[in-house]
Sequence to fold (109 residues):
Amino acid sequence: MKQRKIPETPYDEVIGDVCGHGWRQSPESDIDGAMGVAIALAVAHGVKADLVDLSDHLNIAFTLLKRPFERMSLAGVFKNGMIEQEKDEVKGGDEKTLCYYAAYASGHM
Fold:
């Protein structure tokens, strides 16, 4: 497995609380889950659910966000307005809510 350098995001503290603070050294599917948490937090804070906008805001390479974003998209996260409906929980760092987004992004749901 190729090790990638993942830069700090604006949501590292919350990602660490949800996914474990060593998430950058986790298997790829767990990193995808962490990216799902970052995506959900960014969208809840008003970033457009668009890969380029998310990549710019999160300071994460487009290629690292692509797979988790597509999985979340296929699950209907963006189309059904799930994040908007749970905005307070997501912005508040509710672990149960954010674990669902991690699961969608990692392909476990």
Q: What stands out?
A: DSSP finds seven helices and no strands in the chain. Residues 12-106 form one domain. The chain has a mean pLDDT of 93.
